[in-house]
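stuck on whats below:

***
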Amino acid sequence: MDVKKNSLKAWVLAARPKTLAGAAVPVIIGLSMAYSSLELHPSASVGQRAAFNILPALLCLLFAFIMQIDANFVNDLFDYLKGTDDRATRLGPERACTQGWVSVGAMKVAIALTTVLACLVGLPLVVYGGWPMVLIGVLCVLFCFLYTTHLSYMGLGDLLVLVFFGLVPVCITYYLQTTTVTPQVVVASLACGLVIDALLLVNNFRDRDTDRVAGKRTLVVRIGAEATLRVYLGVGLVACLAGLVFAMNGHWAAFLLPLLYLLLHINTCRRMRRVWEGRALNACLGETARNIFIYGLTLSLGFLIEH
């Protein structure tokens, strides 16, 4: 690919815009659940709906987008510096620093700018959620760096996805609209985290041989490829079975609609088994990203249409 160094095209590729859908899904789920429950908000009088607050909703979405780009930049830079991304052996999509599209110095500046911008966008959420929002923001930034530099090498990436693409964004987004978090929201956040973890699983499944050489003790390196395929299938199944909690609370559509996601997820798992290794697994990565978006869309619609 012909990309001029530090050009706009180079920065767009480095930002990995396709990953932004995954960043948006937890926020969208949290917002849809909040909207469907606002009539039960403590500040609403009998028969009166509490207003949906658009500003914190937009701030949550924007914060998620910027933090995702920040994480992509951090991953791009530090995997290059550590030698994990090698031009000759890399199987995944091309990376900016490794390909020479973006200089190391420019990437460091970009990381600093996106980190500061994320903090500035997130800070006004203190008005709606109090000072604990500062702690949440600090943890998001801290683990954004720790994931690539240390924790991914320890095989803790899946746990971080569950927390920072599930529990934190879904619950915090819901809380900022309703000032409470229900057990149903916690279940939805965990299901969301499991669904998004499928993206990390297929990524690590593809890179298992190079990760083993680089000393990255990812889940697939620890338990093997066959067991990882079962985990991949399992995260989708468990996420959809968790929807029984929604059905028990009267949200049958929120249980039934995501079954479309499950069919696609199973089909992608079968394709992974057929392909098994190499760059051809990038198609499975794309399918998984699509599946995540469909899960977020169907679950959100499930809560909204039964409202």
In short: The CA atoms of residues 166 and 189 lie 5 Å apart. Residues 40-48 have pLDDT under 50 and may be disordered.
